[in-house]
What does this fold into?
Amino acid sequence: MLEELERIQTAGLADLEQATSEPLLEQWRVAHLGRSAPLMQVFDKFGSLAKEARPVIGKRANEVKRLLEARLAERASALHEQALVRALQSETLDVSLPGRPSQQGRLHPTTQTLRRIYEIFAEMGFQVYRSREIESDEYNFELLNIPAHHPARDMWDTFHTQTPGVLLRTHTSPGQIHSMREHAPNPVRVILPGMCFRYEQISARKEIQFNQVEGLAVGHEITFGDLKGTLTDFARRMFGDSVRTRFRASHFPFTEPSAEMDVECFICGGKGCNVCSHTGWLEILGCGMVHPVVLQNGGYDPAKFTGFAFGMGPERIAMLRHRIEDIRYFWSNDLRFLEQF
Ligand code: DAH
It folds into this structure.
């Protein structure tokens, strides 16, 4: 039996030399270590051996088995290595070849501008307050000190739903009332971004759907100086440190006093060009001190609280930043336009 094992081992090792590929090696494994291999038959006959012979034969049989298994593993890894080397030589890969560019999407120019606005106001401690796009007449107008038949309503003509008194908001200002009612009597410092709608003749400067970012700060001893400081700082961060600003008196029913803020035309540097209609200034927002009636509607005692508010159009700001000449591009989905940002 020991001789038999010797033969098995010699034959196995000799045959292994011929196993020069992975399939041949597999054949070798079946022949020499498979269930019906001579070595396995030795194990099968084990029971019929004389008791004294068993330890000797068993030990030797296990040695042969381990040896064959070890050589099989060595051979397998050597073949694998060779295959890899061959593949590397035959399938040469030019790693210096430029890759195919993948089309990368990006944010819409309005979204980019909105995010910049959020960042700037976040740095100044303003939180984003989201408010609904469908509003009641009460919130869109009345609580903002614009009663029915007030001539100022003409500026904010809108789309009405079939439910009387329910409409698409014309500005983000109704969000002022929502946020005040939620926070009163605590101070508020929020910006309110979102979509607004107007019944307008669409033109290069007017759309029926656009974004606004409203701002509101209510608290004790908030002054017009705070309003000017906040908005001037905003303009610097948005348009650059050297930008000049001015406030012009204006009128909004929900603020008193009211103003509009202009930035110096950065296209002509204030000299006058067709972008600024030869005035040297570009209007970027409306603002003012929150009207006492509005404070009261929001739940604050106007004798104890003051506040300022402002509203700006991010599309308009994007138009100024990127010198976009027609507001209709924002909704036209024209890739030639969108891919420029
Ligand atoms: N809601 C105004 C509009 O749509 C913009 C505005 C002006 C908002 C003055 C304000 C403000 O909060 O104080 O034209």
